[in-house]
Structure formats: structure tokens, C-alpha cells
Design goal:
The chain has 221 residues and is an alpha+beta fold. The protein has helices at 14-26, 83-87, 116-123, 146-149; strands at residues 46-47, 68-73, 79-82, 92-99, 104-115, 131-136, 141-145, 155-160, 163-164, 174-176, 189-195. Bound molecules: the ligand Nc1nc2c(c(=O)[nH]1)N[C@H]1C(S)=C(S)[C@@H](COP(=O)(O)O)O[C@H]1N2 and molybdenum atom.
């Protein structure tokens, strides 16, 4: 992947990135199966009780009092939230499973935060909006179809298991998209852009699937 396609690439830990690029080329973890979404564990995954940390070798320290979130693009009412604005929104709690493309799944994670549907109702997507790009404080980006971001179980989380999200897991605020592989769940969230056209993010540029449905084993492009 060249630096001009992804200007932050030179800051990443290149060993980590190269390993995952190789997995995409080799199809690591692929079983060739697909599973009905009624089956809890997607094909090729195993359950773990730990909560591994995956990043690009950069863990930005983002303080709640200087954090902000900008939401714009194909929306009628762009917005920008401070931490106080974010915490003043209706709070929801959700419990769900997460599935990392590196084959671990973790069941029954309890999150607290603001639902994506609430956010979308405030910004009002224009009819042209079809994709979402999430941008993070470490330079990471990930894209997803708007209908996946608008699913009822998607949220902007600030707590996990009753405690504030730790910095290594993306605090103060991360996205959680339980129905897609966990790389779509951007940590250290900074901005959300609604778009008419799709634009690949950090891993999507490096061989990973554009959508990433674990039950269809959409690991790689
Ligand atoms: N900003 C940012 N978000 C990110 C990543 C990252 O490197 N930077 N890694 C992704 C990947 S590959 C996974 S599997 C999950 C890991 O989240 P965790 O470290 O809380 O387990 O975060 C995703 N979100
Ligand atoms: Mo991942």
C-alpha cells in the first residue's frame, strides 16, 4: 500500500500491518463455509474469554475533556459534539458478541453509549448518502454501508462492562458494529462522514473485505 493512498501509513507499525496484509493474501482463517446468522459462532471463529487489543502500534491518548466528534458529509444537519454534548444524549446499554477477523470471538460484551440511530436521526442523512467513513485519532479509517451503520445494535460506546472504555480499547469513545468483523468498530472515534460513494479505509485498502459479514466469512476482498 503506498503512502499517497493512505498518508498516515508511514506512522503505522509496519510489521503489524505487513502481517495482516499477508493474511489477506493467503486467505488465513478461511473455511469456505458460510453459516446462517442464527448460529452464534461464525465459521472459522473460536470463542475467547479475554479481550485482546488490536491496533496499528499507535494508541493515541485522547482525553475526554478535549475529545470531539464531527459528523458531516451527505447530511442535512452536520454536528460537532464535545464530551459534554455526547454525554447529554440519550444513553443506551447493549449486550452483544464481537468477532475479530483474526478468528477470536468474545460473547456478551456490555456496552453503554449513544445509539447510531439516534445520531442519524439528528443529522438527517440526505437521500444520496449510502456509505459511512469512520475516522479515528490514530489516523485509522474504516468504511461501511449506511444500512449497516444504521442497524439497531450499532452504537458509539464510552463504557464496557460498567467501566469507562480504557485507552487501549478505544476510549473515550469507540464505535461498536456487532454484525460485522470487529475491524469495522473504530476505536478513538473522531469523525463520521456520510458519503454517496464508497471509499475504502485502512484495512479495506489492504486486502480486507469492503463489508465484512462474519457469517458470510467476508474476511478478505
Ligand atoms: N482507531 C482504530 N480502531 C480500530 C483499530 C485500530 O487499529 N485503530 N483496530 C481494529 C481492529 S483490527 C480490531 S479487531 C478492533 C480491536 O478492538 P480491541 O483492541 O478493543 O479488541 O478494533 C478495530 N478498531
Ligand atoms: Mo482485527
Amino acid at each position: 500500500m503506498s503512502d499517497d493512498q493512505d498518508p498516515l501509513a508511514r506512522h503505522y507499525n509496519s510489521k503489524l500491518v505487513e502481517t495482516k496484509e499477508r493474511w489477506a493474501r493467503d486467505g488465513r482463517g478461511l473455511t469456505g463455509e458460510s453459516a446462517a446468522p442464527t448460529r452464534r459462532l461464525p465459521p472459522g471463529q473460536h470463542e475467547t474469554a479475554d479481550f485482546p487489543v488490536l491496533d496499528l502500534g499507535i494508541q493515541p491518548s485522547v482525553r475526554a475533556d478535549t475529545w470531539s466528534l464531527a459528523v458531516g458529509g451527505e447530511v442535512e444537519r452536520p454536528l460537532s459534539w464535545t464530551w459534554a454534548d455526547f454525554m447529554a444524549q440519550p444513553q443506551v446499554e447493549m449486550t452483544n458478541d464481537i468477532h475479530c477477523v483474526t478468528t477470536w470471538s468474545r460473547y456478551d460484551n456490555h456496552w453503554k453509549g449513544v445509539s447510531a440511530r439516534h445520531l442519524l436521526a439528528l443529522v438527517r442523512p440526505r437521500p444520496a448518502a449510502r456509505f459511512v467513513l469512520l475516522r479515528s485519532y490514530d489516523g485509522y479509517t474504516t468504511n461501511l454501508p449506511l444500512e449497516h451503520f444504521a442497524a439497531e445494535d450499532v452504537m458509539l460506546a464510552h463504557s464496557w462492562e460498567g467501566e469507562p472504555l480504557t485507552p487501549e480499547h478505544g476510549g473515550p469513545v469507540r464505535v461498536v458494529v456487532p454484525k460485522l468483523y470487529f475491524w469495522k468498530s473504530a476505536k478513538w472515534l473522531r469523525a463520521i462522514t456520510l458519503m454517496a460513494k464508497d471509499a475504502p479505509g485502512t484495512w479495506e485498502l489492504r486486502g480486507y473485505h469492503d463489508v465484512g459479514d462474519p457469517w458470510q466469512e467476508e474476511r478478505y476482498r
